[in-house]
Fold this protein.
Amino acid sequence: MDNQVKSGKEILEDFFNNIQNIENVDKNLAQSLADLYKENNLTEKKVINKLQELREQNGNKN
């Protein structure tokens, strides 16, 4: 029995590589979060800014 334990980094990479495959997930949001993670920019401020940008693209300025 080979039970290999994944590191936190491996778990995060798996998650962000597959985030778009999660049922009922907004594809644009998922891609944006994955991109921020890959760019090492996954901060609260960057996520808030990206959410606002996506809202404006969808015509919802609130």
